[in-house]
Amino acid sequence: MILKQGSKVKKTLTDIEFIAEYDSKVGELYSNAKCIYTDAPIQTLVEIRNILEYLSEQIMQDYSLEVIQSSSLNSKINTIKKNHVVAPYIIEKLHKLRADCNKAAHKHEYNLSYDEYSELALCSGIVNLAT
């Protein structure tokens, strides 16, 4: 989308472009997750979990928190929580996404249908943004 602002013409960023501007790796993971949603909702959830892992590690690095490579995503989020780095409602969202994505990352532990995985991926918000 192109917007005119004064005498300048500005292009409006898509959600993928906006995220890629923030971090190219997150943008790539997000783009992959969004593009495969219809055909591969399980992989979409795995990609979202990869984004959570990456962002958690980046936050821990940015705030000089000890990053233990072998620690679980749950532990990383709790370390961020314990150090009051982000607001509690963000921690809640991170844990909710982590729990939903775990159902795809560890699908052998769950007995979900394809439609249930599709619903989880849809509820993640990845597809609710402009498509």
What does this structure look like?
The chain is mainly alpha-helical. It has one domain (15-123). The chain contains 6 helices and 2 strands, in the order ββαααααα. It has a two-stranded antiparallel sheet. Strand 1 (2-5) and strand 2 form a beta hairpin. It starts with a strand and ends in an 8-residue tail after the last helix.
Shape: flat
Q: Main beta sheet: strand number and arrangement?
A: 2 strands, antiparallel
Unreliable parts: none
Any idea how many domains?
A: 1
For the record, give the distance between the C-alpha atoms at the N and C termini, rounded to a whole number: 13 Å
**SSE series:** EEHHHHHH
Give the rounded overall mean pLDDT: 87
Give the strand tally. Answer: 2
Strand content: 5-15%
Helical residue percent band: 55-70%
Strand order of the largest sheet: 1-2
Structural class: mainly alpha
Radius of gyration: 17 Å
